[in-house]
Amino acid sequence: GTSRSLVDDVERRRKALVNEFQRAVGQRYELCRLNTFEFYPARESRERQTAVLKALNSYGKTMKSNIEAGRNIILYGPPGTGKDHLLVSMGGWAATELFSVQYRRGVDLFADLRDSIDAHTLEKDMLTELVNCDVLVISDPVPPWGPLTPFQAAFLFRVIDRRYCRMRPTWVSGNFSGDAVDRMGAQ
Asked: Of 1, 12, 117, 164, which sits most exposed with the smallest number of CB within 10 A?
C-alpha cells in the first residue's frame, strides 16, 4: 500500500531528475560514466587521470554528505582530456541519488544572461534558478577567445558566492592551466 506508493514516488522523482539532467547535457554525453572514461596512453597522463578518477569515485561514494557539505569539484587542463565526461558522470550519479543538477555550458550561460537583458527580465530570476539547484555544473565558464568580461565575471562571482554561502556545490570544468586567475579572476 503506502510503502509501495512511496517507493514509486521516489523512483518517479529519480527518473525525472536523471531525464532532466540528460536533456541538459545532450546526446553526446548521455552514456558518460566514470567506468567508461578513456585514458590517455602516456604513462604520466594515465597516472594523473587515475588519481582524478579515484578522487571522484571517493566523492561519489559519499555523494550525499559531500553535496550537503557544499564540496565543489573543479577540473581543469587542456581541451580534450575528458573533464566534461567526468563532470557529467558525477552529475548523473548525483541525479540518481535524488539531487537536482543543473548543467550549463559557459557560453550558453552568458548568452542566456545577455538574452535576459534583451527580454527585459530580471537577472535575479536567472540567478535564483542557478543558486537553488542542489548541484550546478558549469562547463568551461571562460570563453576560449580570452578572459571573462567584467560583467560576466561579476555574474559568475555572484552565482558561485551565493551557492558557497548556502553550502551548495558548484562543479566546474575549465580549459586552462596556470592562467586560471588571469582568465577568471582571483575570486
From this structure: 1
- Cα separation of 133 and 87, whole Å? 16
121-141: pLDDT as tens digits: 777 888 899 999 999 999 999
Per the DSSP assignment, residues forming a β-bridge with 172 are 74, 138
d(C-alpha 32, C-alpha 28), whole Å? 8
Q: What is the pLDDT of residues 136-163, one digit of tens each?
A: 999 999 877 777 888 889 999 999 999 9
Rounded distance between C-alpha atoms, residue 140 and residue 7, angstroms:
37
DSSP summary character for residue 85: H
Q: Are 64 and 94 in contact (CB under 8 A)?
A: no
What's the CA gap between 16 and 13, in Å, rounded? Answer: 5
pLDDT digits (tens, 9 = 90+) for 46-80: 888 999 999 999 999 999 999 999 999 999 888 88
Give the span between the Cα atoms of 132 and 170, in whole angstroms: 11
Q: Which residues pair with 174 in a beta bridge?
A: 76
- DSSP strand pairing (73-76 vs 170-174): parallel
Distance CA 58, CA 40 (A): 21
